[in-house]
């Protein structure tokens, strides 16, 4: 009966609005990828393409850097002033800065627009996850709703590049006289308009009310709680760094070593996204009890390292598909599991803890992407982009091995329902200050 009451309080229009908020920021990141190199060449007319190519990576890195810098700040703001205003500010700011990016006519303005994109996007993820955590009446309910948010984000990454290219082609076909400058701006304005519509949905359906009777975790040992948080943040960082290095290394290996076409490389990334969607749907389905997910962290890291080692030796379509599937399946569950357990132990400081997790993952992605490009082709270690990344993943196993025990010791089982009038409502979790 408790779960049914909480589900009624978090109405499906509210959940749908949060799913769209996560979806739109990942679409806003992904749709830019196939367009950005051409956009840079259009702005910097007359420059050599080889001189402009570093700006593609740097602009993507600028966005990720903004996520790292500002996500913890927005998480704290969400804890103090509520989830709804932070999500609304993030969506409207994200939409406005997409339009600014579209109108940029110089490289400095592109960098400014991308930094502002990341600043506002970093507000949405920790606040949305924290709001779900606020309403959670049970571990199962929390895990299943988090799975939906994870799938919404993965779907945005999957569909973003495709939607950006389709929008550009559609505008050019429908308005042939519009000119290249206006055509390149159209996907940005389309994404900005979508973000404004999602903001209206959040304004209409998401309430500022803090629900009674939430699934609260009572901390049994503060030092254990801090140890859990640090380890989970480390796993988030390592997983994101491995994925970042893998994506860059896979793209470079496909084109430079295996002679793949851009379509074949795109298909590998499509497979990667689809595998992530499937494994997340399974691991956070009713088939798997949320308590059991803590035992998947160590195997997940081992499989991730194995997949990375296999990539350089994959020379056929089947072996390459297997290597990509191993990396995608393991990475696809490691980060969501870390997010789930961080949220479960965060108490009333959901936003702060999840903001730190977003920052750790963003920093990992930035470091991994840079390392993947720098290490590819390095002679001092064979296949350095993959083997050194796999070694880093294996080195992180020590952080994961003791986590199942710490997750049990850092709280009093079972967690119980409390309301604002209950003396247990002030319990502190791994994301709270003492």
Give a topology summary.
Blueprint: H1 2-9, H2 12-30, H3 36-43, H4 49-81, H5 83-103, H6 107-135, H7 139-174, H8 180-205, E1 214-216, H9 222-257, H10 262-283, H11 297-310, H12 317-344, H13 350-375, H14 384-395, H15 397-401, H16 403-409, E2 416-418
Antiparallel strand pairs: 1-2
Helix pairs in contact: 2-6, 2-7, 2-8, 3-4, 4-5, 4-6, 4-13, 5-6, 5-8, 6-7, 6-13, 7-8, 7-10, 9-10, 9-12, 9-13, 9-14, 9-16, 10-12, 11-12, 11-14, 12-13, 13-14
For the structure shown, list the relevant keywords.
mainly alpha; disordered N terminus; globular; 16 helices; Growth Hormone, Chain: A
Apparent shape: globular
Mean pLDDT: 82
Beta strand %: under 5%
CATH 4th-level superfamily of the largest domain: MFS general substrate transporter like domains
Number of domains: 2
- Radius of gyration equals 22 Å
The residue ranges in which pLDDT falls below 50 over 5 or more consecutive positions are 1-8, 412-434
**How helical, in percent, are the residues?**
over 70%
* Contiguous helical run count: 16
Supply the CATH class of the largest domain. Mainly Alpha
Largest sheet features: 2 strands, antiparallel
Distance between the termini: 34 Å
Sheet with the most strands: spatial strand order: 1-2
- CATH architectural name of the largest domain: Up-down Bundle
Q: How is the CATH topology of the largest domain named?
A: Growth Hormone, Chain: A
Walk me through this protein's architecture.
The protein is mainly alpha-helical and 434 residues long. It has two domains: 12-210, Growth Hormone, Chain: A; 212-434, Growth Hormone, Chain: A, CATH 1.20.1250. The chain is built from 16 helices and two strands. It has a two-stranded antiparallel sheet with strand order 1-2. The longest helix is centred in the middle third of the chain and has 36 residues, at 139-174. The two termini are 34 Å apart.
């Amino acid at each position: 009966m408790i779960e049914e009451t909480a589900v009624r309080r978090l109405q499906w229009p509210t959940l749908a609005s949060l799913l769209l908020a996560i979806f739109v920021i990942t679409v806003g990141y992904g749709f830019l990828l196939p367009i950005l190199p051409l956009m840079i060449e259009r702005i910097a007319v007359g420059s050599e393409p080889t001189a402009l190519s570093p700006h593609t990576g740097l602009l993507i890195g600028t966005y990720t850097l903004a996520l790292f810098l500002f996500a913890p700040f927005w998480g704290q703001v969400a804890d103090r002033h509520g989830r709804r205003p932070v999500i609304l500010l993030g969506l409207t700011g994200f939409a406005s800065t997409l339009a600014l990016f579209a109108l940029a006519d110089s490289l400095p303005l592109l960098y400014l627009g991308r930094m502002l994109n990341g600043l506002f996007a970093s507000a949405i993820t920790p606040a949305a996850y924290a709001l779900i955590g606020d309403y959670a009446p049970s571990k199962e309910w929390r895990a299943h709703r988090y799975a939906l948010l994870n799938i919404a984000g993965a779907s945005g990454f999957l569909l973003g590049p495709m939607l950006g290219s389709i929008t550009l082609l559609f505008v050019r076909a429908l308005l042939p006289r519009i000119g290249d400058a206006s055509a390149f701006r159209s996907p940005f304005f389309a994404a900005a308009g979508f973000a404004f519509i999602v903001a209206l949905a959040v304004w209409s359906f998401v309430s500022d009310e803090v629900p009674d009777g939430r699934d609260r975790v009572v901390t049994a040992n503060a030092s254990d709680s801090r140890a859990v948080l640090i380890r989970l943040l480390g796993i988030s960082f390592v997983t994101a760094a491995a994925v970042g290095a893998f994506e860059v290394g896979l793209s470079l290996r496909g084109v430079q070593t295996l002679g793949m076409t851009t379509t074949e490389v795109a298909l590998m990334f499509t497979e990667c996204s689809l595998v992530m969607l499937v494994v997340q749907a399974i691991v956070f389905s009713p088939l798997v009890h949320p308590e059991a997910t803590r035992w998947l962290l160590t195997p997940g890291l081992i499989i991730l390292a194995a997949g990375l080692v296999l990539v350089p030796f994959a020379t056929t379509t089947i072996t390459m598909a297997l290597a990509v599937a191993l990396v995608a399946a393991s990475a696809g569950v490691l980060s969501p599991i870390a997010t789930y357990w961080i949220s479960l132990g965060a108490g009333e400081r959901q936003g702060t803890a999840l903001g730190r997790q977003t920052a750790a993952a963003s920093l990992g992605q930035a470091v991994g992407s840079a390392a993947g490009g720098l290490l590819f082709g390095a002679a001092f270690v064979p296949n350095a982009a993959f083997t050194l990344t796999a070694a880093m993943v294996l080195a992180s196993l020590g952080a994961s091995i003791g986590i199942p025990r710490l997750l049990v010791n850092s709280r009093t089982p079972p967690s119980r329902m409390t309301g604002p009038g209950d003396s247990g409502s002030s319990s502190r979790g791994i994301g709270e200050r003492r």
